[in-house]
Design goal:
Blueprint lengths: L2 H10 L6 H20 L15 H8 L6 E2 L5 E13 L2 E7 L4 E7 H4 L1 H10 L5 E10 L5 E12 L15 H6 L1 H7 L1 H23 L3 E2 L5 E2 L11 E4 L4 E5 L4 H9 L4 E9 L11 E10 L3 H20 L6 E4 L2 E4 L5 E4 H9 L9 H10 L10 H13 L7 E4 L11 E2 L2 E5 L1 E6 L2 E8 L4 H16 L10 H10 L3 E7 H9 L31
Parallel strand pairs: 4-6, 7-11, 15-16
Antiparallel strand pairs: 1-5, 2-3, 2-5, 3-4, 5-6, 8-10, 9-10, 11-12, 12-21, 13-14, 16-19, 17-18, 19-20, 20-21
């Protein structure tokens, strides 16, 4: 950098307040010098005709012997320079693309003075480059591209995270997913698996003649699940609206409308806390089949999950996966048990023998369950299940027979109307799927909506709204129907051994950082 340029630089660029900002300043200076001295602006490069991925190079030239150069083949590739080591008339770099990474070898004699000097002077780690060269294996045995031409495609003004030694700070990883993906190839692999799992789910459903549909995300009512919704306001209509918490009620309207098998995979929104299993914005899949029941939905759930496990394990391999030090076996038939039986098994309390709400509440209190004093015996049963049973269900387990009181959209068990034809699937103590033989009795449905409305008026902001149009729909006639919902993010977690739901959502919900200003030297505003 010449003396005058160095003197003027502070007047042109904002001064950094830490080491990273100083590197950004230096790189901006370097970009300005590149444009001024070479007349070259990398941001004006519009296209690079990449012919070979790095995975292709590795796959097709791994046979090269040590110190062997194949000049009969010209490789045209591109990627990001991850590391760079310059030594006089030779330089080495590590180049990465979305498929692999390979060493680059720059040599003065092979490239010529002009091209070699340009690459050595202007290319830095983090930059995107186009490469023309020949496959080569070094004397140390490393497969390499012997560079003949290096084209700077994009200048990186910010340094790679932690000099490419790995980005470990989870806050930074989630907030700046792009740097996480650069620094941690295993994260990229997780999201590739997620994409394959979602494709597998779609294929399984389509193989069963199920069509994919889209229903509203914005609605005047938030129904289909017990959850607190996000509210918004539509200015033109002058009315409050909600982001959907589930797709159920719209999809069942479509079955009424003569679509025999439908499904939707997309975003739902629930105004709840954030933890390793919850994100306010999440991906769910719901499917509805006319003429099916919840037993059919169990079979479908097992098929969906086994096919998804195949894309992770490889078709034909055992569907055995490890999740956070737990060995999961998806080959075995999933265990099935009623809520009543499981609570009796794990607590010794058989709610079949309890007919009095006061007695149920007393038993719950004695066992340490938080009781408010108004719970029915059915609510206490569910609280006992959540407190003492859920965490014990490690291998895939279908839990059936939920109380009607907590299942406002499920068909009653004709042999015991206090319970429903419903199941939830648990893996490692967490709910992954929920399914019903769908309630299609409009009179019963109206009554259950009225019960939910009473709970809402009593202060339960997660109770269902009364959806009069949905009642109209099933009064028009909903055939016997099986419905299933799967939490896609959670399923991906278990299939990819991901500790948190944030590890399988590219851009999870995060609380904004305090604002920063230049006027106060870059400190957090207001502190």
């Amino acid at each position: 950098m010449d003396a005058q340029y160095e003197k003027d630089a502070p007047n042109r660029l904002p001064q950094g307040n830490d080491g990273e900002d100083e590197i950004v300043r230096q790189r901006k200076d370097k970009l300005e010098r590149l444009i001024a001295e070479e007349g070259y602006n990398p941001y004006l490069v519009e296209k690079w005709d990449r012919k070979h991925s790095l995975a292709y190079v590795r796959e097709n030239f791994s046979h090269l012997a040590e110190d062997e150069l194949d000049e009969s083949v010209t490789i045209v590739t591109a990627g990001r320079v991850m590391t760079l080591r310059k030594h006089g008339k030779a330089a080495f770099a590590n180049l990465a693309d979305e498929t692999d990474n390979l060493q680059l070898y720059f040599q003065f004699n092979a490239m010529g003075e002009e091209k070699y000097t340009f690459a050595k002077k202007w290319v830095d780690s983090g930059d995107w480059v186009g490469i023309v060269g020949h496959p080569f294996r070094t004397q140390r045995g490393e497969l390499t591209i012997h560079v003949r031409e290096c084209v700077l495609l994009c200048k990186a003004l910010r340094p790679l995270p932690e000099k490419w030694h790995g980005l470990k700070d989870t806050e930074v990883r989630y907030r700046q997913r792009y740097t996480d993906l650069i620094a941690n190839p295993e994260v990229r692999e997780t999201f590739r698996k997620r994409s394959k799992i979602i494709s597998s789910i779609r294929k399984t459903l389509e193989d069963h003649g199920t069509i994919e549909v889209e229903t509203p995300i914005l609605s005047v009512l938030a129904g289909g699940a017990n959850a607190r919704p996000f509210k918004t306001f539509h200015n033109a209509l002058g009315m409050e609206m909600y982001l959907r918490i589930a797709t159920e009620l719209y999809l069942k309207r479509l079955v009424v409308g003569m679509f025999g098998r439908v499904y939707e995979m997309g975003k739902n929104f629930r105004n709840e806390g954030l933890d390793t299993m919850h994100n306010p914005e999440f991906t769910a899949m719901e499917v509805y089949w006319a003429y099916a029941d919840y037993h059919d939905m169990m079979d479908l759930t097992e098929e969906i999950i086994r096919n998804a496990a195949d894309v992770v394990c490889g078709a034909g391999n055992p569907r055995k996966l490890r999740f956070q030090d737990v060995d999961l076996d998806f080959d075995k038939p999933f265990k099935r048990g009623s809520m009543l039986d499981l609570v009796a098994e794990y607590t010794g309390v058989d709610f079949r023998n309890i007919s009095d709400d006061d007695e149920a509440r007393r038993i719950g209190k004695d066992r340490g369950v938080e009781i408010k004093g108004t719970e029915s015996r059915f609510t206490v049963l569910n609280l006992m299940f959540e407190t003492f049973v859920e965490e014990k269900l490690i291998q895939p387990t279908f839990v059936t027979g939920h109380p009607t009181e907590i299942s406002p959209l499920a068909k009653r068990d004709p042999e015991n109307p206090d319970y429903t034809r419903r199941f939830e699937l648990f893996i490692c103590g967490k709910e992954v799927a929920n399914a019903f033989s769908e309630l299609n009795d409009p009179i019963d449905q109206r009554g259950r909506f009225e019960d939910q409305l009473k709970k809402k008026e009593a202060g339960d902001d997660e109770a269902h709204d009364f959806d009069e149009d949905f009642i109209n729909a099933i009064e028009t006639g909903l055939p016997p129907t099986g419905g299933l919902g799967i939490g896609v993010d959670r399923l991906v977690m278990f299939l990819t051994d991901s500790r948190s739901i944030r590890d399988v959502i590219l851009f999870p919900t995060m609380k904004p950082l305090p604002s920063r200003t230049r006027e106060d030297g870059g400190e957090d505003a207001g502190e």
